[in-house]
Amino acid sequence: MLTRGARRQGRSSANPRQRLLHGWDWADAAIELEEIAPGSRVLASAGAGELVAALADAGHRVTAIGANREQTDYARRRVAGGAFEPGSAERLMDVGRGMVRAASPAWSRRRVRAFLQETDPMRAEAHWKERLDNRTLASILKTMLGPAGALSALVLRDFATPIPPHFDEAIRGRIARALRKHAPAGNPFAWRLLLGEELPEHRAPAVDPASVAWTAEPVLDHLERIAPGTYDAISLSNVIDGANERWVRDLRKAALRAVVPGGPVIARTFATTMDDEAAKRARRDRSMLWGAIVVQRAGA
Questions:
Q1: What is the pTM for the complete model shown?
Q2: For residues 187 and 44, what is the distance between their CA atoms, to the nearest angstrom?
Q3: Which residues, at least 6 apart from 208, have a Cβ–Cβ distance to it below 8 Å?
Q4: Cβ atoms 53, 74 nearer than 8 A
Q5: Residue 27: CB partners within 8 Å, gap ≥ 6?
Q6: Is 199 helix (H, G, I), strand (E, B) or coil?
Q7: Quick one: how many helices (H) and strands (E) in the chain?
Q8: In what order do the strands lie in the sheet with 233-235?
Q9: Which of 50, 96, 126, 248 is most buried as measured by Cβ atoms within 10 A of its Cβ?
């Protein structure tokens, strides 16, 4: 068992910053809806409330967890259909897009907005490779996301999560991969990432916040406290990114104990993987960011 001090070497969920970290969820709920049996008892990261609302709207009995009260209060508002508010993640992305836009005419708001209306995935991928994924973008991402980059430092400060090595190259490849599979005209995550705006007419599901159970505590503390088999499924966002191995090991053990036999524990990560199935799930996720989406089933 880890001491309290060792637990704080885990990710920000163990010692959260009390501020709004992200106003949009960067997880495609379609992944969870594919993996989780109908009518399940689901523990999910409160996040920005969009994944929680999608799960509840699909008929799952959801418990939303978060130790950051400001983030959780925002998630409650968003679950009920409240307005979007930018968090630290969105502000960081705005900084990066602004730098690229200032240096590359191809990234003007008008041109990017026109690109995002493309309905053909193959044409979208070709446009990305020929015009948007240019030397300016590559140079700025390499500078800003490198070990000494300003964006890397801000991500570490706000999220307690180091940027993986060569993430600048990885994210460019993941965007191309997503565009090849998901046309940007219908992908809200493409609009959010590349333009910083919501897809026109896109509306996230909204449910009564009272239909969701809310718990405000670190996820590992919660999982170790509850009875075995309390949940049918667990979705942990990317809580393992930046955490030490002992904390991740304890989290995995506690999560697999907390779900019924055969129940999935779902976790995303920015890191690349040699796990083919985890990589395939990441390619199906429209958000463009993830290197792997790992699904472990209790008793498997």
A1: 0.90
A2: 23
A3: 80
A4: no
A5: 47, 51, 235, 237, 268, 285, 287
A6: coil
A7: 14, 6
A8: 213-215, 61-65, 41-45, 233-235, 264-269, 292-297
A9: 50
